[in-house]
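Exercise 7.
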Amino acid sequence: MSPSFNGLKVQVQTYLGEVATPAAKAGNGNAIRVTYDNGPLSLAVGNGKTTTGAGTDWKATNFGASYDLGVAKVMALSSTDKITGAADMKGSLVGATAPLGAGVAKIAFSNLKQGSTVDTDKTAIGYAYSLSKRTSLYTTYALTKPKTGDKTTGIDLGVSHSF
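Solution. The predicted structure, written as tokens, is:
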């Protein structure tokens, strides 16, 4: 990671897959991420490529932004994934977090499309209750609704502790 230059940072990554047949280079890849943080505004763009097997690659590009309004933080994300031999995946998300009592309330709406066969919306709402500076309890409820097929719901509960 580079030092910050007026809020601008650059991260570069390369990695080698641990595959018995190195000719395929499966698992090898590289990525770059550029972020800009200035006051309440945060922006990030990332691009990466991973070789998933002989002649196949997974390329991912995303752009994210958030703005802290003081009473809430709003955020958005756009992503595109290209996998050799498959239809492109395009995703989007808008969300917000806001302090509420001793914790933070969270809400997000997202969509994922892949070709003409996948088009799914997801809504999630959650809350993280701070027990201390490093420990919190959290819960999330999510509803996933594909344009075709059955909807699914999920709930998670947990404890998070930072060391």
